[in-house]
Amino acid sequence: MGETKYIFVTGGVASSLGKGIISSSVGKLLQARGYNITIQKFDPYINIDPGTLNPYEHGECYVTVDGQETDLDLGHYERFTGIQTTRANNITTGRIYQSVIEKERRGDYLGKTIQVVPHITDEIKRNIKLMGKKYKFDFVITEIGGTVGDIESLPFLEAIRQLRWELGKDAINLHLTYVPYLAAAKELKTKPTQTSVKQLQSLGIQPDILVLRTEHELNADIRKKVAHFCNVDEEAVIQSLDMPSIYEVPLSMQAQKLDAIILRKMNMPVGETPQLGPWRSFLDRRNKATEIVHIALVGKYDLQDAYKSILESLAHAGTYNDYKVKTHFVNSEKLTRENVEEQLKGMAGVVICPGFGQRGTEGKIIAAEYTRTHDIPTFGICLGMQMMVIEFARNVLGYVDANSREMDEKTPHNVIDIMEEQKNITQMGGTMRLGAYDCDVREGSKTFEAYGQKQISERHRHRYEFNNQYIKEYEKAGMQCVGTNPDSNLVEIVEIPTLKWYIGTQFHPEYSSTVLKPHPLFLSFVKAAIENSLSTKKQSKDK
Q1: 3-class secondary structure, 321
Q2: Which of 154, 174, 341, 370 has the fewest CB atoms within 10 Å of its CB?
Q3: Is 382 considered catalytic here?
Q4: Is 508 a catalytic residue?
Q5: Strands, E assignment, 53-133
Q6: Annotation marks residue 58 as catalytic
Q7: Ranges of residues in the chain whose predicted pLDDT is under 70
Q8: How confident is the model over 206-219, as pLDDT tens digits?
Q9: CB under 8 Å to 491, separation ≥6 — which residues?
Q10: Which of 382, 439, 460, 519 does the annotation list as catalytic?
């Protein structure tokens, strides 16, 4: 294919309408037609990245293979399309301004007065076009965060206005809005959409395609009215109804010929409609799975977006095990020895969630002890794995004061610590292990059985590590260190082989699970939870 084509996805009326899901769906449909695509997100906030943002503010922080902390929408991009995103796929206002200010300090602008237009907008344009120029993608889908009308989004919208003028038919705008339903009047209202499009037009951008989020079917008259008032072709007014699953959205978009409309608007051959066979098989299997397996998530954030990738990974694994996973959030701050049995009663498996800081850690340790002593399949991720390690030290090795240096700097039994080589670089702010690292898996372990291979690579986001001084004691007492980094010898995976399934990973496997390639550890964990559930039911019947 010739020049890279650019699709700009903007939103109006309200946030959280699903721009990320629509962007991912467009990417999936174009990919199914054989095009090489990528998707990037421009976030208008001034933080350099979401690494320091509270999950209650912004949901989970997603990590790319090259170690960039990014917006959770990048997780959707990867899960839908199977592509691997990088630092270049998520840019914030903070990163744009940082880059411009660094150039100004170096004297790159030769004494010019630095302004939003052209300097900030040029930097945004450079970052948008970089993906196409560097990697020769056929399509670059660029999602602009926030909604039209936000002050923060204005430089991004100005940049795409300029780009659309410069690129001509190689760039289009897809605008996502909301059509509310007024129950009292029993009417769908298009006025918010019209207003949103007028705001966009006032900035010099005419949308080519409108996607209307709605909870009720939009009839032909409503779509015709929207097309008429917004200067958009009737066929290019698409509805995005609420779906039972986000994974149904690409099929809904394809049924309304969204991919074909995009290609026609960019003067490209349309060709045959792809069958999306594997995707349909996944959905068919998902819809046919009626049996439920109950899994507890023990964490401190009572917010589904805080553990988005974990929830989706469990859902993928459930589908491929022909079960529906029903997750139950258990607040680790409120978990005590007195109520742990009641809180985890009826759970076939338990995930001990990742996180940072001391809040809720004692509850995670109590959960780890309960599941270890009651042989309930348990999956500890990052901090969750560290809490499993501390619990084992306290209750099996007999170190009642064992802890992580993160929680107690003076602990005499620092089974989790910052390693010496990391301490030396603390002043440089480089103590975090971020991105993909290799891991050697011990043959014969449950983990090896799950992966089916000795060498793996997984993504990290943490500062503290298993203290290797204690390896021999742990292994002698029954907790095996079955995964290690080949370069640093740091422990990556622990497991107790005598239990049904008790595995902790220092890395975040949830970042690598996709619709068509579920993560092997989640598959194995959910399978063990299902087997545990069935054996528990059988035992209660026999009684």
Answers
A1: coil
A2: 341
A3: yes
A4: yes
A5: 62-63, 69-70, 90-92
A6: no
A7: 1-2, 56, 420-431, 543
A8: 999 999 999 999 99
A9: 465, 466, 468, 471, 481, 483, 484, 506
A10: 382
